Amino acid sequence: MTVTSLGIPRRLLEFTLDGQEVRVPEGATILDACRAAGKDIPTLCHGDTLTPKNACRVCVVEVEGSRTLVPACSRRAEAGMEVRTQTERARHSRKVVLELLASSADLSTTPRAAEWIKEYEAKPDRFGPDAARLNEQPRIDNELYVRDYDKCILCYKCVDACGEQWQNTFAISVAGRGFDARIAVEHDAPLTDSACVYCGNCVEVCPTGALSFRSEFEMRRAGTWDESAQTETTTVCAYCGVGCNLTLHVQDNEIVKVTSPHDNPVTHGNLCIKGRFGYQHVQNRG
């Protein structure tokens, strides 16, 4: 029997997961239980600092008595429920979703996407070259981060991070409908003419690399980006007294980007423009 960590004491619920009895704290999701049990459920739109949006549907599982497959990231565990994660129905649904996403967006910088496509034997090419792609050049209109909408899967995580869940700037929204839907700032303007405050919290939550540090984008384009050669050091931001934690990603003795620990009680992965992008002075050796 698997038991998840409790944290704040809560009543435990018991249910069946792939034939195994598991216990989770009240309020936990099926995805929480799967991860505690060591089960690898693919996720893209899920963010550990955001309210689930149920947008991508690659985490679906089968629940006994449910007419449809349910998203594990948002479905709360219930006592006595029977959950199956690897049924033919669930696996086929994940396969089709991966095919649809990979046929319409560039997932080359999406962590684990190639692994999942191989595992589920997805064949995105079967939709042909006329699949609904934007075929748009990356938008490089500022010095801090790049918008490459060819990699966007419309997960809405950037909208939520910019909006009421964190930053409350509301610079980002969804424009258009259907195949024309896309992430945009007001009037689809250059980022420099928008309400963006360059906190980079949208970059932090983007699962595909559609939003990326300008430094990372340039290094990837030059073929020099190498995560295996990078080190990560967590420190405290020195700009003010809030005490935000920064994780410095360093390659060849240069800071290439800055993130923040999602489990930090001060920042929860969020930073301001100074913490996220104000690191150039550290390596100004002139």
Rg measurement, Å: 20 Å
Oligomer: single chain
Query: Which residue ranges are poorly predicted, with pLDDT under 50 across at least 5 consecutive positions?
Result: none
**Strand order in the largest sheet:** 1-3-2-6-4-5
What string gives the helices and strands in order? EEEHEEEHHEHEEHEHEEEH
The assigned structural class equals: alpha+beta
Distance between the termini: 60 Å
Number of domains: 2
Gross morphology: globular
DSSP strand tally? 13
CATH level-1 class of the largest domain: Mainly Beta
Q: How large is the count of helical segments?
A: 7
The CATH topology annotation of the largest domain reads as N-terminal domain of TfIIb
* Residue share in β-strands: 15-25%
| CATH homologous superfamily descriptor of the largest domain | ADC-like domains
The share of residues in helices is 10-25%
Task: Describe this structure as you would to a colleague.
- Residues 142-162, 188-216 form the 4Fe-4S ferredoxin-type domain.
- By secondary structure, the protein is an alpha+beta fold.
- It folds into two domains: 1-132, Ubiquitin-like (UB roll), CATH 3.10.20.740; 145-283, ADC-like domains (N-terminal domain of TfIIb, Single Sheet), CATH 2.20.25.
- The protein has seven helices and 13 strands.
- It has helices at residues 30-36, 88-104, 113-119, 157-162, 201-205, 214-222, 273-277, and strands at 2-3, 12-17, 20-25, 60-63, 70-71, 82-84, 145-147, 172-175, 182-185, 211-213, 231-236, 245-251, 254-259.
- A six-stranded mixed sheet has the order 1-3-2-6-4-5, sandwiched between helices. A three-stranded antiparallel sheet has the order 11-12-13. A two-stranded antiparallel ribbon has the order 7-10.
- It is globular, with a radius of gyration of 20 Å.
- It starts with a strand and ends in a 9-residue tail after the last helix.
